[in-house]
Design goal:
Chain lengths: 122, 501, 423
């Protein structure tokens, strides 16, 4: 049995979690979570940590970049591969918030969508 | 061939250039930086001294007093700020009071008008916020404040409007005789020939003097550090307040600026490196300690910027002016440290006359004194603002929120004859970026405008030329859309009268 | 002169939420002024996630969160003017604004909501010695460059300050191809959200150097490096601990300052603790009819709290505008003063009208230090009215305290309310 202290990043509360792990590195118990998602996060983080990826892509013919995000977190160790793949795309205007910019990025099963629209007015 | 080459586009170089433009002469100014006022001109206390400090009989004394008298009409003609706010030298104990008497006598010998000594109550009446231990103060009504780089820029504009050529990024490397003429070789290999040379090269004036004359000169950098105080403290002091020099050294001054901020400093430190304009922990601490006597409870939280400038301190104890005996046609304006800014208008007049006399040049019939102006949004009243926006909507877009500078002014600052090419160039012509947020809000917009106006890519925009790049090239997949081909070197502002070699 | 019921200055998250609330509270004649070309304020450049968990029960990016409110603004047909800078606000609630499209405009509003946000503390204010090369940016300006202009401020970065903007930029710069060498923090704790320390620094092996500061900037034309030193208990550099980092960029995340120039021009009293206006529980400032919310009032950590606070301000502004004598109904009664107790900094609001509380009282503050397993206690004239235990309290995270309406009514003639941290 071992213990690992991690901070939940599920929301800005940042609950400090104490995770008990078995010898086989399985999560036995999670202490300190302020909500149900804390335990979920702890299990995920100790077994297969994932992260949301947000970044920018260039829109053809436009100067201002387009902000994008993965629709769900991707495996943490694939983050930089995903960034590289996302940065290859150069969508054409107009782009609407929610449009898929990259489908199934790096085979993670996760799409990358626009978080803003190119045709914006106040 | 050119008639006169002026080395250095600081306040003295530009003042001389403008005065030379009154004569039938072809004049070119060579400047190593990419803009005017890049040396000591942009980093001093901006004070127009009354003239009690300089040693009687010296060039410093003579040109200080003469320059002081010329300052107001010159600034009015050029449309740049000047305030005759008066200077005080404050004494905090009886020993210091006797120094005030000495300064008064010295000033009177120099021809400084209106000097008087005020007692404690008089000093307090003039400056309600003066340090509580004040004993007395020397009052010099002719002391004033200006904006040295705005003045220099307008001097250059005026000179250029009257035919003077300016060559930037064109640092002189050597001056030598070639027959009857002077040959000036630039760092980039270009050569210029002229019948006369004016050496206004600031920290490097000794280099050129020593190339042409056996009367050697040494100029050493003397660094002065300063603090700028937020304009929310405007009004704390109305006069320029000096401290009496003591055994501990010269205390720091506190002065309002023409922009509503306050300036505190300088230190004085002999250093070896003519390019070392760093501020230091010790220097900044010294200022904060020294200012307490004058400004009790000095608010460190009010500091918005710190900077340092290098005085061109010569080893002869005075300005070095005019032709060395062995170098006729080579005119020094060297070792110009304080009161160099004050003296500049008078130095300009005197040197131009010396040069014109030497070259037998007649005065031009036409000389347009002012320079092309753009109105400032921040100085306009409501009716003027409405009218300006109706004429040019860019007056309605405020780019620098802290100093209320509109887009129209920024574009004008780039489009004029001696136009801005860099972030600092825009800053010093418009004040955009000089407020309390120090460019945090406006920098992205100014970069964008520079790119648009000059056809530059963002990676090419610099803070002040040379290697002061602002932005790194973006990702391959994300090249910013370029507006036209990259701009060429920002060296020559064309003028019909200039020819090389 | 255009007459308005409610004028909102600022179209960021605070202004947007205030506008929506004012309209929903029945305000007919309202206008929102925004100086940028588009709405959204600072959210436009916050392309990371972390917004909306409380308000929308979803985790959104800044632009997405803004869009939710912008859509509401449009759906409610709230008049908006972008590209418009407000120059002056008077005590009499006259507002002067300027824009290329409309020139100089004058408005007279029955109520004004101040929502101008904040600015960043600069290198000059810190008096960091050294050269003045290109490459020193505040983190927010760098964020604007990267996320909105598409330009990189540099390639090798040191960040001074572990506030949220600095932490977020550590990750952003890393994602966009730069190398971040360290995050240097003066205090012995980070001033940002802990989740950000984890997912912006720890994830990328970027060291967080607590109790350190930058003592010199090197480079004449462009940053060439910085010297970092450890500091003692008095936050003074310890000689002999200096180390040099070779970098070409220094980002500063050393404090946000509410932007109150306009508030000052209106004669609004500011708190020296928050640097924002002193307000009562209706978020009304010392000038009748002028309300404040969002970062201009006090610097927030979570935009969800900004929206909640701004909705209150918008609603109260609308109510004020509607009121017959243009006065708060119970403004005759003496307000209860709110004081910062032990361990507490900058409680907002600073005054409470307990006579007719519209709802439970929402107080916010920042802990003065880091406390573990401590309680936040609210007292009115010494009597405890609320106590809540917290596992951790840290200056980087704003704390919300609620005092039930019933408690306020029980202490109607209360003179002083204090909030304190008790062990």
């Amino acid at each position: 049995m071992s213990e690992r202290a991690i901070t939940c990043i599920g929301c800005p509360m940042g609950c400090r979690l104490a995770v008990r792990l078995t010898a086989g590195n399985e999560v036995d118990a999670v202490d300190g979570a302020g909500c149900g998602r804390g335990a979920v996060y702890a299990r995920q983080e100790c077994v297969c940590p994932t992260r949301m990826v947000t970044t920018l892509v260039h829109v053809a013919g436009r100067r201002a970049p387009l902000s994008v995000k993965t629709t769900r977190p991707v495996p943490k160790e694939r983050v930089f591969d995903c960034l590289k793949a996302i940065h290859q795309s150069e969508p054409a205007a107009p782009v609407r918030i929610g449009d898929v910019i990259v489908k199934d990025v790096c085979g993670t099963g996760v799409d990358v969508v626009a978080t803003m629209s190119t045709e914006e007015n106040g | 061939m050119t008639d006169v080459i002026v080395i250095g586009a600081g306040v003295v170089g530009c003042a001389v250039a403008r005065e030379l433009a009154r004569f039938e002469l072809r004049v070119a100014v060579l400047e190593k930086s990419c803009d005017v006022a890049e040396g000591a001109t942009k980093s001093n206390s901006a004070i127009v001294h009354a003239g009690f400090d300089a040693k009687p009989g010296s060039h410093k004394a003579r040109f200080n007093v003469a320059g002081n008298a010329l300052f107001e009409p010159l600034c009015r003609e050029l449309g740049v700020p000047f305030q005759r706010n008066a200077s005080l030298v404050v004494a905090f104990c009886p020993e210091e009071v006797s120094t005030l008497e000495e300064l008064k006598a010295r000033g009177e010998t120099n021809g400084v008008p209106g000097l008087r000594i005020a007692g404690r109550d008089g000093a307090r009446a003039l400056e309600p916020n003066i340090g509580r231990e004040v004993c007395a103060a020397l009052v010099a009504p002719t002391g004033g404040i200006c904006c040295p780089y705005e003045l220099t820029f307008r001097l250059a504009e005026s000179a250029a409007a009257n035919g003077v050529a300016f060559c930037f990024s064109c640092g002189a490397r050597s001056v030598s005789r070639r027959g009857d003429a002077w040959l000036v070789e630039a760092e980039d290999g270009r050569t210029f020939e002229a019948r006369a040379v004016v050496n206004a090269a600031g920290l490097y004036a000794d280099v050129f003097n020593n190339q042409v004359s056996a009367e050697k000169l040494t100029v050493r950098p003397r660094r002065g550090e300063y603090l700028m105080i937020d304009k929310r403290y405007a009004g704390t002091f109305r006069q320029t307040v000096f401290q009496v020099p003591t055994a501990m050294g010269k205390g720091v001054l506190v002065s309002p600026t023409v922009d509503g901020t306050l300036i505190v400093g300088p230190t004085a430190e002999e250093i070896g490196d003519k390019t070392d304009t760093r501020t230091t922990t010790a220097g900044l601490a010294k200022i904060r300690l020294s200012v307490e006597r004058v400004w009790n409870g000095f608010p460190s939280s009010g500091v918005i910027a710190t900077f340092a400038g290098l005085r061109a301190h010569g080893d002869r104890g005075d300005f070095v002016l005019g032709e060395p005996a062995d170098a006729p046609g080579f005119f020094n304006a060297a070792a110009i440290e304080s009161p160099g800014l004050t003296a500049a208008p008078a130095l300009g007049v005197w040197l131009a006359e010396q040069v014109a006399d030497k070259l037998g040049a007649a005065r031009r019939k036409e000389f347009s004194g002012g320079s092309s102006h753009w109105p400032q949004f921040r100085s306009m009243n409501a009716a003027e603002r409405s009218a300006a926006i109706a004429r040019d909507p860019a007056y309605g877009r405020i780019v620098c929120r802290c100093e209320s500078v509109s887009e129209a002014e920024i574009r004008a600052a780039i489009r004029c004859r001696i136009g801005a090419r860099t972030l600092d160039g825009v800053k010093r012509r418009t004040r955009a970026g000089m407020g309390r947020c120090q460019g945090g809000f406006c920098a992205p917009r100014i970069v964008e405008i520079l790119c648009e106006e000059l056809g530059m890519a963002p990676e090419q925009v610099t803070k002040f030329g040379g290697g002061s790049w602002l932005l790194a090239p973006t990702h391959d997949a994300r090249q910013a859309t370029r507006v036209g081909p990259p701009a060429g070197s920002e060296s020559l502002v064309a003028s019909p009268s200039l020819s090389h070699d | 002169m255009t007459d308005l019921d409610v004028l909102i200055i600022g179209g960021g998250p605070a202004g947007l939420a205030a506008a929506v609330a004012a309209r929903k509270a029945g305000c007919e004649n309202l206008l929102l002024l925004e100086r940028d070309e588009a709405l959204g304020g600072i959210l436009q450049q916050c392309i990371h996630t972390g917004f909306g968990l409380h308000v929308f029960k979803e985790e959104l990016t800044g632009p997405e969160y803004a869009r939710r409110f912008i859509d509401q603004v449009h759906a409610l047909r709230i008049p908006v003017q972008c590209g418009t800078m407000v120059l002056e606000v008077t005590r009499e609630r006259e507002v002067t604004a300027v824009s290329p499209a409309h020139g100089l405009q004058q408005f007279r509003a029955r109520a004004i909501v101040l929502a101008m946000g904040c600015r960043e503390r600069t290198r000059g204010a810190l008096m960091i010695p050294g050269g003045r090369p290109a490459g020193v940016y505040t983190a927010g300006t760098a964020q604007r460059f990267v996320n909105m202009e598409g330009w990189m401020p540099g390639r090798r970065v040191v960040i001074l300050g572990s506030g949220d903007i600095g932490l977020i930029m550590a990750r952003r710069m890393t994602f966009e191809g730069a190398k971040v060498l360290a995050c240097v923090e003066l205090m012995p704790f980070s001033s940002g959200l802990t989740r950000n320390v984890v997912q912006c620094l720890d994830d990328y092996g970027i060291p967080l150097m607590l109790s350190h500061t930058v003592t010199e900037i090197h480079g004449r034309e462009r940053v060439e490096g910085v010297t970092v030193a450890e500091v003692d208990a008095k936050r003074q550099p310890l000689p002999g601990t200096e180390q040099r980092f070779d970098c070409d960029t220094l980002l500063l995340s050393v404090g946000l300052i509410p932007e109150n120039e306009l508030s000052k021009s209106a004669g609004v009293e500011l708190s020296p603790v928050t640097s924002g206006p002193v307000v009562d529980d209706a978020l009304q400032t010392s000038v009748p009819g002028i309300f404040a919310c969002g970062n201009v009032l006090h610097v927030h950590d979570l935009v969800d709290n900004v929206s909640e606070e701004a909705a209150l301000a918008g609603r109260d502004a609308a109510e004020f505008a509607r009121a017959v004598n243009a006065q708060r109904p119970d403004s005759g009664a003496e307000a209860m003063r709110v004081r910062d107790g032990a361990g507490v900094r900058g409680v907002v609001p600073q005054a409470v009208h307990a006579a007719k509380p519209a709802c439970d009282l929402a107080l916010t503050f920042r802990p003065a230090a880091v406390y573990r397993d401590a309680s936040v206690v609210v007292r009115i004239d010494g009597a405890e009215v609320s106590r809540r235990k917290h596992r951790i309290l840290t200056p980087g995270e704003m704390v919300k305290v609620s005092v039930p309406k019933a408690e306020l009514l029980r202490h109607v003639r209360g003179k002083e309310l204090t909030v304190e941290v008790a062990p």
